[in-house]
Design goal:
355 residues; Rossmann fold; 2 domains; 6-stranded parallel β-sheet; 10 helices; globular; NAD(P)-bd_dom_sf; GFO_IDH_MocA-like_dom; Gfo/Idh/MocA-like_OxRdtase_N; oxidoreductase activity
């Protein structure tokens, strides 16, 4: 018999925060949506219209929400720059934490979060890398770990967003940490998941361009980038990230082994419908990430709640989230400095370049 519901609060109602809010409401059998922190007037108004009717308490200050009685956990979906403060405050209140990726855009902050979490081992702290909860990616990983493609040795990933003519990502670029931290970190996490979380980078190289938005150069960002990681032991990862797809969301992955390969989402599609007409055969693709990964977000939340309520192990380690940020930051650094960054077998840098 399941224990009482997990009483959860949500911090942040930006684009992803709103999605999380509606997702939490849909999990009413196991989660009680207690409170929300809405830092801006627009977010507060959205919460008043869409959440208050369900009994969700609204707060304009995070500290006030943290003092709300009977909370068990908080889902953090605010800007990455404030994740450290909010995670540590939640831990100080003895709350479980599910945090949107990345844990932070600052490596030292990530290590402080990790230290704080280790000091509270009774609490569950997880970074939300949603693709790990996608049914297709899980099936692919089961095939890889079962040895169906031999020894996995090469991974090729791409994360491509539909072009946003409104320029949201341009405005956000000063806070995002850059295209590899903001977007490519999903592919980095998948790389560690498929090739081994203990793999150590040997060299990291990246390049890119500000094709449609040259103003991104002023924030050390790009709208297209490619990166490559060579790991000690010979495994290799290759990434392509883009914010200028005209047709829609396109995320795909190839894992290549010594006896075969597995491919996820090679031909992106919104559904199983193909339209056959005089001009050929066409199909629709997802407009945005939510259309592709909505199920994964729900599964992520369910497994986090299960871990909190039943004291189960979390499905992923916090240390891996820190390692993913370290790799993403190095790719971003290589992108900006046009330098290859190298590491010894213990993961210590051999070439020191800085932004």
């Amino acid at each position: 018999m399941r224990p009482v519901k997990l009483k959860i609060a949500l911090a942040g109602l930006g684009r992803i925060g709103k999605k999380h809010a509606l997702n939490i409401l849909s999990q009413s059998q196991m989660i009680d949506f207690v409170a929300v922190f809405a830092p801006t007037t627009a977010e507060f108004q959205w919460a008043a219209k869409n959440l208050a009717q369900y009994g969700v308490f609204l707060y304009s200050r995070y500290e006030e929400m943290m003092s709300h009685a009977s909370l068990d956990a908080v889902l953090i979906a605010t800007a990455a720059a404030v994740h450290e403060v909010e995670i540590i405050q939640a831990l100080e209140q003895n709350l479980h934490v599910l945090c949107e990726k990345p844990l932070s855009t600052n490596i030292e902050a990530c290590h402080r979060i990790l230290k704080a979490a280790r000091e509270k081992p009774q609490l569950k702290v997880m970074c939300g890398f949603t693709r790990r909860f996608d049914a297709s990616y899980r099936q692919a990983r089961q095939q890889v770990t079962s040895g169906l493609i031999g020894e996995p040795s090469f991974i090729r990933c791409q994360s491509c967003d539909k072009y946003d003519a409104g320029g949201f990502f341009v405005q956000y670029s000063a806070l995002s940490g850059g295209i590899f931290v903001d977007m490519g970190i999903h592919d980095i996490d998948l790389t560690l998941w498929f090739l081994g979380e203990d793999t150590v980078p040997k060299s990291i190289t990246a390049t890119g361009s500000a094709t449609l938005h040259p103003e991104l150069l002023t924030t050390n960002d790009r709208d297209n980038a490619m990166g490559m990681i060579e790991f000690h032991g010979g495994k290799v990862a290759q990434f392509y990230v883009s914010r200028m797809m005209a047709h829609g969301q396109e995320d795909s992955t190839d894992v290549i082994g010594t006896e075969g390969k597995v491919t996820i989402n090679a031909q992106p599609a919104k559904d199983l419908v193909n339209l056959c007409h005089a001009g050929g055969i066409t199909r629709e693709v997802p407009e945005e990430f939510w259309a592709r990964f909505e199920y994964a977000f729900s599964q992520e939340l369910r497994e986090f709640a299960d871990a909190c309520l039943l004291d189960k192990p979390l499905p992923m380690k916090l240390e891996t989230a820190v390692k993913a940020l370290e790799i993403a930051a190095a790719l971003q650094e290589s992108l900006v400095t046009d330098k290859q960054i190298r590491f010894d077998e213990q993961g210590r840098r051999l070439l020191m370049a800085s932004l």
